Amino acid sequence: MPVSPVASTPNTSADSGTAAAAAAKQTLDSEDFMKLLIVEMGNQDPLDPMDNTEYISQMAQFTSLNQTQSLVSEMGYMRADIQLQAATSLIGKNVTITTEDGTITGVPSSVTADTSAVYVTIDGVSYPYGSVTKVEPVTTTAE
């Protein structure tokens, strides 16, 4: 007699709430570490308990990871600030920008930034700061 596979039907309200919570929080914090530590301590073998140095080692590793994540985030902010300052120095200079369609040369009138990039505006069109390939002083010819 053939046996058909059993498919579980998800509880959409519970699953969607769990999925939404997982999507909203993608990093562990000290509260999560403490919850894991409490569960670990509650489930350990009372005849062979975990050594205190293991707990301290785990806490030190978690703290180090947390500080590294914070440092990476701060470095990202610093990089964005430096790019914004450098892009601002292009205003009033002759700039060449390379795009998929070719090169554009002009004098930037403004610089803008959002959460992901810095942009240089030439003739009303914004281009990523990273696409700037050449910068020259504007030359004026005497008549």
Architecture overview:
The chain contains three helices and six strands, in the order H-H-H-E-E-E-E-E-E. The chain has 143 residues and is an alpha+beta fold. A three-stranded antiparallel sheet has the order 2-1-6, with no helix packed on it. The protein has a three-stranded antiparallel sheet with strand order 3-4-5. 6% of the residues are buried.
Please give the structural blueprint:
Blueprint (H helix, E strand, L loop, with lengths): L11 H13 L5 H13 L9 H37 L5 E6 L2 E5 L3 E4 L4 E5 L2 E4 L3 E5 L7
Antiparallel strand pairs: 1-2, 1-6, 3-4, 4-5
Name its key features.
alpha+beta; 143 residues; three-stranded antiparallel beta sheet; rod-shaped
- Runs with pLDDT <50, length 5+? none
* Helix amount: 40-55%
The run of helices and strands is HHHEEEEEE
Biggest sheet architecture: 3 strands, antiparallel
Helices and strands: which structural class? alpha+beta
Shape: rod-shaped
Straight-line N-to-C gap: 99 Å
Question: In a few lines, what is going on in this structure?
Answer:
This protein has 143 residues and is an alpha+beta fold.
